[in-house]
Input
Amino acid sequence: MEVGPGDVIADRRLVSLLGSGGEGDVWCATRPDGTSCALKLVRPAVLPAPEEVRRRGAWLVRIDHPALVQVSRGGRFTAGDLAGWGFVEMDLVEGPSLQSVGPIPDALERLAPIAEALDLLHAGAWSEGVPLIHRDVKPGNLIASRDGLVLVDPSTMRGLDTRDLTRVGTPAYVAPEVHSGHFGPLADVYSLAATAAALLTGRRGGSLVPVLRDPWAHDLPRAVCAALDPDPAARPLRCTDLTDPRPVTADPPTPVRGEQDLATRLVPPLRHDPPERLIGGPRWALVALTAVTVIPATVWAARQTQPSLIDATLVRSVLIGAVAAHLLTHVLTRRAALGLFAPPWAWSELLSGRQAYGDPRATWLADVIAGLILVAVGGVALAVTSQAAAVVPLVVVVTLALIGTARRLVHVRRRSAWTLVWMIGLIPRILGGLPRLVVTGGG
Output
């Protein structure tokens, strides 16, 4: 099937070809009233079932966000030369794409509305609660309009409830799990992080690959590095967790021939208020930590004062329950490994929030909280242990603390590293006070 300028498709006259991709071609077209629009013709091979096309088309026209291109209509041709093809009509967004811009220091701030829009898609805001996944977030699909960045190419979106997930996307920006056909919103989190890395460094193509493989070595924000983890469970849960309102610096890019620096042509971004958390939060984490620590400590204290009312079996059961609740909490918040090997930092990240990623002050606060938790909970744990059995939990607590410290030192910035050195210095003090704690608290 061949079409060209002047042809009338879906009652729209084609003017010029805007671009081609794996799914089809995008044309600049005019409506009968003379206004311009963008018309994408989608190849039959990448279209879902007819019922899915109708349902998804109804969802796309409902989407209403300034950072997402507005869709007017969509469907599938059933007759003529284009029988079996699909089409999506949308607003024509005026402005250059970010396909070949140079480094943009405040890229995360400019991407904030895009991140917010993606989170709304993932929450099913316009699709009857069914999560929508864009699947093709990349610089080439970001247009710098007069009102800010706009994410285009909505034809790649799919509902998470569909079984027909064709593999689309640009390889450099596609999450690893997409190749298996089993993926969800966290794939968009990865693609947004890869896009952010490209915009921060100015790298594209082959020069971007080393950055995506080892982002921690390129002075990128911690949220971006975490979101580029091959394991979806290790990534931030939402796209808005990646954005940071302050400019950041990245390593100098490798020059690309013919690259145009469009950063100066970008207009100031729209004001953006981060959305409320969908689940969890510091208050919830504080309640959970209180339940895991205070309840066992209270039962143990009652055992010391009223041994006839509370037997040792109940104390052991409560302690086992607290450990189970601790592990379950961090499994549900996707911090299972951190909760197992570095419990203080797992709780500190819950208390400080995921926004600690990319914010040195929040990271420093998280590490201070971890230090306080290590001193308080570690002291209580050693206090409730009998003198004869103190060696085993002592070795376990110190070993886990050192493992967690080593893990943290690999990924934190200098300020957090100094905080950890300070906390390591507290360990001998804790050990020095062990005999007193055991004598006065054990029994």
Residues 344 and 370 are 5 Å apart (CA to CA). The first helix runs from residue 50 to 62. The first strand starts at residue 8 and ends at 9. The chain has 13 helices and ten strands.
